Amino acid sequence: xxxxxxxxxxxxxxxxxxxxxxxxxxxxxxxxxxxxxxxxxxxxxxxxxxxxxxxxxxxxxxxxxxxxxxxxxxxxxxxxxxxxxxxxxxxxxxxxx
Length: 97
Known about the structure:
alpha+beta, YaeB-like fold
C-alpha cells in the first residue's frame, strides 16, 4: 500500500511522543499490505471501522488516538486524512475530512 503522507504522522508524534511507536508500527504494517477490500484490512486490523466515503478509522494505542485514512484499494493508495486524540476526533466529520 502506498501511503501519503508519512510526514503527517511524523508531525503528530513529534508533539505527541506516546504516539510515535504505535504509529510507526501501523505505518510499517500498512505499507506492506496489499488489501483488496475492507474485509482483508479488517482481518489484519480488527479495530478498523468504515465511516463512509472510502474512509477508514483506525484506533491507535488502545484508542488513545484515531487515524482516519482514505483508501483506494484498486490503486493501492492510502491517504492520511486525520490523526489526533479521541477527543479531537469527536469534533470532526470523519467521512468528509
